[in-house]
Amino acid sequence: MSDSQTTHRQAWRRTDDLTPGATRIKLVEEALPLPLDPTSALVKVYAVALNYRDANIANGGNPWPVIPNVILGNDAAGEVIAIGDKVKTLQVGDRVAPIIDTEYVSGREIGRSWLAANEDGVMADHIVFEETKLVKLPDHLDWISAATIPCAGVTAWSAIKGAGPGKTVLIQGTGGVSMFALKLCRAAGARVILSSSSDEKLAQIQKRYPAPPILTVNYKNSDWHEEIMRLTGGAGADIVVENGGAPSLVQSMKCTRRGGIVSQVGYLGNQDPAQLSELIPTIIDRRVVLRGINAGSKYDMEDLCAALSASETKLDDIIDKVFPFSEAEEAVQYVWEGRQIGKVILRL
Ligand SMILES: NC(=O)c1ccc[n+]([C@@H]2O[C@H](COP(=O)([O-])OP(=O)(O)OC[C@H]3O[C@@H](n4cnc5c(N)ncnc54)[C@H](OP(=O)(O)O)[C@@H]3O)[C@@H](O)[C@H]2O)c1
């Protein structure tokens, strides 16, 4: 094993106490899982990007099982500071991020193991992963931007697959996945229609990206799908990045082009199945392909990193706020309240 003096780490673990007003996450000092396995690497973390999922897990709302007192977080960027004897693909000094589902490498695996759910996450100053679970990050991105890639980035990449010059993509909400999708669509030459519950946020984004213009819709207006049809000359969007789930899915399909794609990414609305009564006639009538998104594989993340590197796409403009690592609780609460446009980051 390469030399490293580090034997302990600090990590934010969930308290599992869901009583109102109780502390949801706690900073702990603990021994690292050392010595390293021959094929593992020790990574010093420089940035952790937060997702809605972190706030949901902290508040006990994750719809999938979570191990007791889990370390929160699935998006981290850091530097390899030690490697096991048999590591072949990484060197000390490499800039890396772990994949967020460590069972999902090629896309053909049948199991799943999500960080911060089936296994510990990455909200820690040091993390240890097997080399095959780590992806090298683009050189042109700083730690803060690079930390947004594994979850928000790969999810956006998977959700807009098929978007290209001249295609229209409806992106719902102004959170992390949505803002990453907006960047990728613009790099790909696709037209963006962005929806939000906040006219103020929409105006801010239109100002940030003046040309080509971003079309906008406020999804608080109950007939927002008709507005999308009007904006697309009656055709509908080629791809929809669906974030609401049950309350908005049918409406999303109604404003998707016949034969178009709805990428189901989020579940931010109240998931009452009664709201899906028109699902079958609508999916048939519009010939919609409903595509379930579960982030993406390691190969997807490598493809995204290659695309970002080739286009030298910067991500500074989708960073909403950077908190120090010591203020993780405040950062999680900020995301829980949906106050961000884009990404919220912990800097170490
Ligand atoms: N399937 C996957 O692989 C995957 C991966 C990552 C995230 N997700 C899910 O995708 C969703 C977004 O994640 P995120 O990390 O980007 O969240 P985020 O950064 O917390 O952003 C959430 C934003 O979505 C908008 N929103 C809230 N309720 C909505 C609704 N009912 N319909 C449409 N938009 C709504 C709000 O934007 P405005 O304030 O502008 O209205 C809110 O700020 C979450 O449900 C998350 O769990 C899924």
UniProtKB/TrEMBL annotation:
SUPFAM superfamilies membership: GroES-like, NAD(P)-binding Rossmann-fold domains
InterPro entries for this protein: ADH-like_C, ADH-like_N, ER, GroES-like_sf, NAD(P)-bd_dom_sf, Zinc_ADH-like
Name used for this protein in its record: Uu.00g140440.m01.CDS01
Span of domain Enoyl reductase (ER): 21-346
Superkingdom of source: Eukaryota
Molecular functions per Gene Ontology: oxidoreductase activity
SMART domains tied to this protein: PKS_ER (SM00829)
